[in-house]
Amino acid sequence: MNPKRCAACKYLRRRCPKDCIFAPYFPPNDPAKFACIHRIYGAGNVSKMLQQLPDQTRAEAVESLCFEAKCRVDDPVYGCVGIIHLLQTQIQNAQNELAKTQAEVAVAQTKLSQTQNSDF
Amino acid sequence: MRGHEPRSSSSCAACKLLKRRCTPTCIFAPYFRSSDLITFAKVHKVFGASNVSKLLGEVPEEQRQETVNSLAYEAEVRLKDPVYGCIGAIASLQKKMLELQHDLAVARTRLLAHSGVSNHVSPLDNSPELAAFLDLVPYSDLMLLDGSTSLDAYLYDLGQPPFV
């Protein structure tokens, strides 16, 4: 066996070819990364997804898949969609707070103008 | 013996797509109705039917519909954006949140400024000039001026910067 197999081929217990699609993104010193992504998506699906992407975008795709896989492992029900819901709720709260504060600013400005006018 | 399992009256979307017999105990049947082939097709393309089956088996039955809904959403987004998937959506939302935080800090500081001068009118406290100054100050500094809570109260710490 090639001692320099990538983490994917080590996990899958197979020979790591020179043109292995996983090798650039799953170094042998990080076995957990591939294990996580394989658990959620499966090696075959990841391979197909990467094959459909241009070379220069594959590293980003792997990182985003790894992040989503980790989210799914941590939260099997909602995965990273839970984060999206949380952010949407926070944004809604912030928008409400902003609207309220801007209304208060408008009222304060009006009062200030009235005070300035009455002084003259 | 072949055919000893009771045949379901209609196959669920998963069994239709996988071209197999849909049994009454099929784990997919309650969540992938036969009329919703497209949703299962997307989920299968991204996650694979056997992985989905394992995931559903790991969650309590009452949470399986929510699990399917979130898997369907993730699959949909991943197929639309094969590079970033949901991470792209998260990054956009985080950016929006930062913009709102900035606007909120500006508004709060303006409110404080107006409240502070409501009884003491001074030509120097002209609103347009103050507003122009506030627009030049970075939002992180503005948060400190009014003593409000830090950005962390609103931002979800993903532990790493957004991908986009």
From TrEMBL, chain A:
PROSITE patterns: LOB (PS50891)
UniProt keyword list: Coiled coil
Organism, scientific name: Camelina sativa
Coiled coil region boundaries: 84-118
Protein name: LOB domain-containing protein 24
Keyword Metal-binding recorded: no
Family of the protein in this entry: Belongs to the LOB domain-containing protein family.
Domain LOB: 4-105
PANTHER family listed in its UniProt record: LOB DOMAIN-CONTAINING PROTEIN 23-RELATED, LOB DOMAIN-CONTAINING PROTEIN 4-RELATED
Keyword Cell membrane tagged: no
From TrEMBL, chain B:
Source organism, top-level taxon: Eukaryota
Residue span, LOB domain: 10-111
InterPro entries according to UniProt: LOB
Pfam families linked to this entry: LOB (PF03195)
Family: Belongs to the LOB domain-containing protein family.
Name of this protein: LOB domain-containing protein 21
